């Protein structure tokens, strides 16, 4: 007589309605070198952009204007940089790719990630296709 290992039954229904967790797709983004950098609950293409440098704005904390995005950033913190802007200066706490040190984004408060209200991802720094350069990587470059 064969030995019974498990008596569990698997059941599924084609007619069942999708659950909230099954419809919430996470998006994965990579550095141009192929390193995993970001997983987020919404496409970066649909997020607002900053007017000063065209960086993608990711809400990192809940505010009266809206809820924070669910995301995880895999990047190393760099030294802060002081940028001259119209009407003053801006301090950027930058994040770099852990493999190739490419600048990925920044926030206005010291690390860790999500310590400030927003995280800014540079336009063209990330791609959804691992090992492929995004089409907007060279936007604004002059020949």
SSE layout:
Elements: H1 20-23, E1 27-31, E2 36-40, E3 56-59, E4 71-73, E5 76-85, E6 88-96, E7 103-107, E8 118-121, E9 126-127
Antiparallel strand pairs: 1-2, 1-9, 2-4, 3-8, 5-6, 6-7, 7-8
Number of helices in the DSSP assignment? 1
What global shape is seen? elongated
Separation of the first and last Cα atoms: 77 Å
Kindly state the percentage of residues in helix.
Answer: under 10%
Tell me the series of helices and strands, N- to C-terminal: HEEEEEEEEE
Radius of gyration: 20 Å
Query: Major beta sheet, specifics?
Result: 5 strands, antiparallel
Instruction: Determine the mean pLDDT.
Output: 87
Count of β-strands: 9
Uncertain regions spanning at least 5 consecutive residues: none
Structural class: mainly beta
Report the β-strand fraction as a percent range.
25-35%
Cross-sheet strand order for the largest sheet: 3-8-7-6-5
Architecture overview:
The chain is mostly beta strands. Helices cover 3% and strands 33% of the residues. The protein contains 1 helix and 9 strands; from the N terminus they run H-E-E-E-E-E-E-E-E-E. The protein has one helix at 20-23, and strands spanning 27-31, 36-40, 56-59, 71-73, 76-85, 88-96, 103-107, 118-121, 126-127. The strands form 2 sheets. Strands 3-8-7-6-5 form a 5-stranded antiparallel beta sheet, with no helix packed on it. Strand 5 (76-85) and strand 6 form a beta hairpin. The N and C termini lie far apart (77 Å). The model has no long low-confidence stretch (mean pLDDT 87).
């Amino acid at each position: 007589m064969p030995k019974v290992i498990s008596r569990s039954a698997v059941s599924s229904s084609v007619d069942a309605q999708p659950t909230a967790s099954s419809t919430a797709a996470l998006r994965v983004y990579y550095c141009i070198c192929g390193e995993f950098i970001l997983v987020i609950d919404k496409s970066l293409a649909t997020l607002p952009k900053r007017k000063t440098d065209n960086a993608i704005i990711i809400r990192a904390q809940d505010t009266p204007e809206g809820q924070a995005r669910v995301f995880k950033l895999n990047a190393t913190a760099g030294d802060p940089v002081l940028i001259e802007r119209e009407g003053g200066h801006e301090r950027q706490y930058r994040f770099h790719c852990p493999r190739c040190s490419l600048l990925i984004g920044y926030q206005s408060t010291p690390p860790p990630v999500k310590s400030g209200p927003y995280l800014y991802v540079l336009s063209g720094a990330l791609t959804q296709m691992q090992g492929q350069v995004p089409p907007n990587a060279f936007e604004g470059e002059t020949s």
